[in-house]
Amino acid sequence: MRPDYLKRSFLGKSGDLAWFRLQCQRPLPEGVGLDSLPSEYVFPESGLAAFLTDWTDWHQNAMLTFRSSPYGSTSHALANQNAFNTFYGGQPLFYSSGHHTSFVDRHSILCHRATRAHNTILVDGMGQRIGIEGYGWIPRYYTGSNVNYVLGDASNAYGEVVSPLWTDRLRKSGVETSPRTGWDVNHLATYRRHIVELGTSGLVFVYDELEADRPVVWSYMLHTVLHPMTIGHELQALHIRAINYARGVSDAWLYASTALTADTTSQFFVPADNWLKGDADGRYASNPNHWHFTASTAKTRCCHFATIIDTHSADSKVRKPRPSKDGTIHVADWTIRLNLKADGRSFFSATNSKTGTEVTLTDRGTFIRDAGHTEILVDHLPQLEI
């Protein structure tokens, strides 16, 4: 019991909301229920997307969230364009890492805000700019009956920190912005990440188009914050598994256009020292380490990554991809044809043998066939409220 709750929280959000509820005896609005809501949302204006499987029982809900935002990484935003997170049972699996100790703490900047902390790509060890200059966007998306799709473009996100506000703020805080800490002259030309939700059962296909103006090392990253990942070679791919306390699992199979060198660590780039948040007795609890997976290529100007992710209960059967000799991949009722050649044109096609659903990347755009509906998606600029 907290009898002084309202007094202590006065003019605070929790206290004021409680006071409002006590004063306004209005019944809550009645609706048709959560199960009537769509299982997917895409907000191109803010650069956010979410796909989930079960509105009615969060205990068995598998979810993927995605960000590629035209507002960049200024204010409280993170340098995580084209990054995704996965969840099961309301808990994270593949998830952004790091601790927010303070706004310009070295660890918070270099291991929480910076790109190395997120499930996206590094270019020759270089991350995305801090500031509005490091932006992404969502050129195409589709939400439908049997398939959902979003395309994020982070081609303009990378390079040196050039924002006067942020260069001054980081300089005063003693945070170096250099190639050593992950910011360098930009050599990225294209980074487009396609995400296809294959049905509404937690199965996802991710396809990355990457090109630079010179040969670079491409580094594909995944992170966990609750348990270590397990890594292995399986089915012509790197198999990365994340688990959480809700008996949830994300299995990811990573394919690439070149050979990969994989590395995992439980150490941050900068230690997560807790120097600010102590209790009443002056004790400062230590921040736990997180786990980081990186798969890196040899230097190459172009690269393609493809990932199949199955997020599910630990009690259910894993839907493993079944690669064929011709490069086709079968998973559940889906057949995925794709180009992984480094110097080849970007291409993938995902078709369902039972429903006839299809998502195909072509030179003209992204072709969708779903429940009797067909269309070709092309790039459209979002309508920003600025």
Q: For the record, what CATH class applies?
A: Mainly Beta
Count of extended strands: 24
SSE order, as H and E?
Answer: HHEEEEEHEEEHEEEEEEEEEEEEEEEE
> What percent of the residues sit in helical stretches (DSSP H or I)?
under 10%
**How much strand content do the residues show?**
35-45%
Look up the CATH topology: Beta-galactosidase, Chain A, domain 5
Query: Please, how many helices?
Result: 4
Biggest sheet features: 8 strands, antiparallel
Write down the Rg: 22 Å
* Structural classification: mainly beta
Count of individual domains: 1
The pLDDT mean sits at 93
* Strand line-up across the major sheet: 7-8-9-10-17-14-13-12
What ranges have pLDDT less than 50 throughout 5 or more consecutive residues? none
Shape: globular
CATH architectural arrangement: Distorted Sandwich
Q: How far is the first residue's CA from the last residue's CA?
A: 45 Å
How would you portray this structure in words?
- This protein is mainly beta.
- It has one domain: Beta-galactosidase, Chain A, domain 5 (Distorted Sandwich).
- It is 8% helix and 38% strand.
- It contains four helices and 24 strands.
- The strands form four sheets. Strands 7-8-9-10-17-14-13-12 form an eight-stranded antiparallel sheet, with no helix packed on it. The chain has a seven-stranded antiparallel sheet with strand order 18-19-20-21-22-23-24, with no helix packed on it.
- Strand 23 (366-370) and strand 24 (373-377) form a beta hairpin.
- The relative contact order is 0.15.
- The mean pLDDT is 93.
